[in-house]
Structure formats: structure tokens, C-alpha cells
Amino acid sequence: MIAAVFFAVSALVALAGLALTAPRSVPPISGTCALILTLAALAAAVLR
Questions:
Q1: Which tens digit of pLDDT belongs to each residue from 14-39?
Q2: Which parts of the chain span the membrane according to its record (predicted)?
Q3: φ, ψ for residue 8, nearest 5 deg
């Protein structure tokens, strides 16, 4: 559980850093990030 929270927080921090450096690329990458987080949550729920 702690690892899942860590990965989610680090993904959000990376997205915030991207927004600061390249704001035009945020929408497509945020969609990809949302997909990855959804799959990670699903995997965590299945393994639990």
C-alpha cells in the first residue's frame, strides 16, 4: 500500500514539474499518467 501511494505521489510531482517546464505537453501526458495510475490502482486492488 505504501508503495502505491509513493508511486502515485511521485507521478503527480513529475507531472507538476512537467507543467513548469513544458506547459504545452501537459494534456497528452496527463492522460497517459491517468491511464497508468488507473492500471496501477486496478493491479493493487487485484493483488489485495
A1: 878 877 887 777 777 777 777 887 88
A2: 29-47
A3: -65, -45
Can you tell me which residue has the cell 497517459?
A: 32
Q: Which long-range contacts (CB under 8 A, 24 or more apart) does 40-44 make?
A: 40/4, 40/7, 40/8, 41/4, 44/1, 44/4
Please report which helix (H) or strand (E) contains residue 27, including its range. helix 26-47
Q: How confident is the model at residue 1 (pLDDT cuts 50, 70, 90)?
A: low
Burial of 24 (0-12, 13-18, 19+ CB in 10 A): exposed
Which H or E run includes 2?
A: helix 2-21
